Amino acid sequence: MSAMSDSVNFEKSGRQLSDMDFTWLEAQIGLALPPDVRAHYSTFNGGEPENYLYVTGKDRYVVQEFFSIRYGKPGHNIEDNYRELARNEKIIPNRLVPFAIDPAGDFYCFDSVTGHISIFRSENLPDLQKCITFLANSMSDFVEGLVEDDG
């Protein structure tokens, strides 16, 4: 697990989180947070990444917003999105936790077991395998891979 880069910055990040907030979230979703996710959210509780483009090979992914934990607007926090997508609608597998969204409404998720980051595109339902595209091994790899739009 690598340390968070000093060059990463988020605008409109929410309230600083305490250990109790992380415990609260884990109770809400019924899953433990990977250490890398916890480390990122200890610094930035959601917000809009200054560098919002993730490029892998020929594919470009835009990250509009990271959801906050506990203190965000309804519908813009991890717990609401997890409850809606994994529990209520049962669209996203339970081990995937949506933490960010792109402009098209697709969700970036972390895997609660492996810590891997993927994007979930619901337009490929019901074929779950086509919905999930692996992007990075960890939250720090994903965040450090964000770049400015090069036009």
Characterization of the model:
This protein is an alpha+beta fold and 151 residues long. It contains five helices and ten strands, in the order βααββββαβββαβαβ. The strands form three sheets. It has a five-stranded antiparallel beta sheet with strand order 5-6-7-8-9. Strands 4-3-10 form a three-stranded antiparallel beta sheet. Strand 7 (107-111) and strand 8 form a beta hairpin. Mean pLDDT is 92; it is low at 1-5.
Number of strands: 10
The value of Rg in angstroms is: 14 Å
Q: How much of the residues is beta strand, in percent?
A: 15-25%
Q: Give the spatial strand order of the biggest sheet.
A: 5-6-7-8-9
3D shape: globular
- Uncertain stretches of 5 or more adjacent residues: 1-5
Average pLDDT metric:
92
CATH topology: SMI1/KNR4-like
Summed up:
By secondary structure, the chain is an alpha+beta fold. The chain has helices at about 20-30, 35-45, 80-90, 130, 140-145, and strands spanning about 10, 50, 55, 60, 65, 95-100, 105-110, 115-120, 130-135, 145.
